[in-house]
Amino acid sequence: MNTEIVTLDEKEIDPVIIARAGEIIKNGGLVAFPTETVYGLGGDAFNPDSSKKIYAAKGRPSDNPLIVHIADTEDLKKVTPEIPVSAQKLADAFWPGPLTMIFKKSPDIPRETTGGLDTVAVRMPSDRIAAEFIKAAGGFVAAPSANLSGKPSPTEARYVIEDMNGRIDMIIDGGESQVGLESTIVDLTEDTPVILRPGYITEKMISEVLGSEVIFDKAIVEVASDVAPKAPGMKYRHYAPKAPLTIVEGDPGDVVAKINELGNQDNACGKKVAVIASSENIPGYDGSFIIKDVGSFDHEEEAAHLLFKTLRELDDQGADVIYSEAFKESGVGYATMNRLIKAAGHHILKIRR
Questions:
Q1: Which tens digit of pLDDT belongs to each residue from 170-229?
Q2: Average pLDDT over residues 132-144
Q3: What pLDDT, in 10s, does the model give residues 44-55?
Q4: 4 SS3 class
């Protein structure tokens, strides 16, 4: 397949290109497009064959649900028969933006789109290119992240091209994603809202808007192979770089010392060592390592924004082994650690004095 690659500026969106992208979706094709979180791989949410094409392009298991992207809150009525009051409150507070909500699905939404579930995940992106594209496509675009299954989600078009060139009809380059992590997913089909995937919109933010308790699904931290995932990223291996990744957790001084010790052992075996580190600790690392600065330990948003980009760059640089510091598990940092733990295959080295 010949993949058309186009560039758009959200300050001056070319209507001809947007219209062409929309027609591809209406005709059953696939288009990768930018959002504020990560790049999405879009197909017609009402066309079961489009969803099958998405799964095939990604190499993604077909029981992993897709997210339906909309550009108008009124369109919620076409994908779900029931909009809880809690959903309206969250939409007023966070849409358009990096929040996905799960509803009971309309019969019109094919089960191929929802991974066989009777629920549907819906999001309204804030990215202007995404919004115009969704409208041109008919208003309902099913989309996971635009990467091969298991690899880090792409925050730049060059990584979409690396994974999807020749597999899909069009790639829209809209620049670097602002957030850098996929959306928060909250399930509103139960009595108590349940966060299925942490993200930029935190548990505290959701709880404050709803004025009620919000809980985390235990599958966020546990691996249950016999349970169908209720949302993207809950079950299968995700976000992994090519090199094995180990998270080292403990007192900062001890972490730096342990990574230096392990990294020097790897160096002695001829391996190229990389370290993902907070700004404060970088001076303490061996100068022979590839060092990736993901910002200050106290700036959670910076690490969240840079994580996927960093993992992709380490692939580009040919790292043979990667060590990462653990990050603060509060606010957005909880989402960062969620993705980092998945990328490491839950391989965490805890240093205790």
A1: 999 999 999 999 999 999 999 999 999 999 999 999 999 999 999 999 777 554 444 455
A2: 98
A3: 999 999 999 999
A4: strand
| Coil vs helix vs strand at 265 | helix
Residues of the chain with CATH 3.40.50.11030: 245-350
CA 6 to chain centre: 22
| pLDDT tens-digit series, residues 312-328 | 999 999 999 999 999 98
| pLDDT at position 237 | 54
Nearest of 182, 179, 112, 109 to residue 144 by alpha carbon: 182
Residue identified by tokens 């330990």 is: 297
Q: Give Cα separations from 13 to 8, 10, 140, 167, 339 (angstroms).
A: 6, 5, 20, 25, 32
**pTM strictly above 0.90:** yes
Q: Which residues of the chain form CATH 3.90.870.10? A: 4-179
Instruction: Tell me the C-alpha distance between 161 and 147, whole Å.
Output: 9
Could you tell me the end-to-end alpha-carbon distance of the chain, in angstroms, rounded to an integer? 56
d(CA 245, CA 243): 6
Of 3.40.50.300, 3.90.870.10, 3.30.450.30, 3.10.580.10, the CATH number of 4-179 is 3.90.870.10
Which has the closest alpha carbon to 182: 165, 196, 168?
A: 196
245-350: CATH architecture: 3-Layer(aba) Sandwich (3.40)
Q: What CA–CA distance (Å, rounded) separates 39 from 333? A: 21
89, two tokens: 């409150």
The reported pLDDT for the residue numbered 229 is 53
Whole-angstrom distance, CA of residue 180 vs CA of residue 178: 6
